[in-house]
Amino acid sequence: MPDVIFPGPEGRLEGRYQHGRGEKPPIALMMHPHPQHGGTMNNKVVYNIYQTFARQGFSVLRFNFRGVGRSQGEFDRGEGELSDAASALDWLQTYNPGSSSCWIAGFSFGAWIGMQLLMRRPEINGFISVAPPANMFDFTFLAPCPASGLILQGDKDDVVPEPSVQKLVNKLSQQRDITVDYRIVQAANHFFTHKLDELNENIADYLQSNVPELADTAADPAD
Q1: Three-state DSSP class for residue 81
Q2: Cβ–Cβ < 8 Å for 139, 132
Q3: What is the DSSP letter of 202?
Q4: What is the pLDDT of residues 96-127, one digit of tens each?
Q5: For 190-198, which contacts have Cβ atoms below 8 Å and span 24 or more sequence positions?
Q6: Separation CA 29–CA 88 (nearest Å)
Q7: Helices marked H in 8-97 — which ranges?
């Protein structure tokens, strides 16, 4: 699993990349929690999501937003981080020309950034949002939401209360032409402590049901 450095809007960005198997494998970009609250690409939830996508055969990239790890720049309230995510997706596409499909995944703050990226990049086919912070950030920009996806939430989350996420899901589910699969992980807190296996199983199950080309691209786990 190579370390990668690629250009971002405010200097270099640091990432980890795993190339998929098969011809033109699907690609997936992971986004981490809030940089000012200890969020990094090595967060356990983000790492597990990354591993799960890699096992399914995706070319996967996780990266540090500006000001985190070796990524240059300073926290920019989400605006700059969205630009970072766009640069990361550009890099991922450059190394995977003609990929069969494009997915994004984010945890907490990263889910908020990921859903904004979804609105700006029509090539994104689907999303995985884990504990999207609907109680902290405005998600009304998802009008309409351009793609179907999976939202995962713990019912014991004391950072993002489950009812706030349910309200977001209800709004999205009223939109035409998309399907939001909402799965609640019982007894899971915000960081899915002792529940990461269930998180992984739900993501793998969703991807296997919604990405037809995966049958030909099964990969070994990433490091």
Answers
A1: helix
A2: yes
A3: H
A4: 999 999 999 999 999 999 999 999 999 999 99
A5: 190/108, 190/131, 190/154, 190/157, 190/158, 190/159, 190/160, 191/44, 191/45, 192/44, 192/45, 192/130, 192/154, 195/154, 196/44, 196/45, 196/48
A6: 8
A7: 44-55, 79-94
Q: What is the distance in angstroms between the CA of the first residue and the CA of the last residue of the chain? A: 6
pTM of the model: 0.95
The one-character DSSP state at 148 is -
* Most distant CA pair in the chain, distance: 43
Q: How do beta strands 11-18 and 3-8 pair?
A: antiparallel
Where does the pLDDT of residue 216 fall: very low under 50, low under 70, confident under 90, or very high at 90 and above? low
Could you tell me if 122 and 147 are in contact, meaning their C-beta atoms sit under 8 angstroms apart?
no
With residue 203 as reference, give the H or E element that holds it: helix 196-210
Name residue, tokens 């979804």. 118
Q: Assess contact for 66 and 4: CB atoms under 8 A.
A: no
Predicted confidence (pLDDT) per residue in 47-62, tens digit: 999 999 999 999 999 9
Tokens of 151: 């939202």
Q: Which amino acid is at 220?
A: D
Query: What CA dihedral angle connects 45, 104, 129 and 210, to 10 degrees?
Result: -110
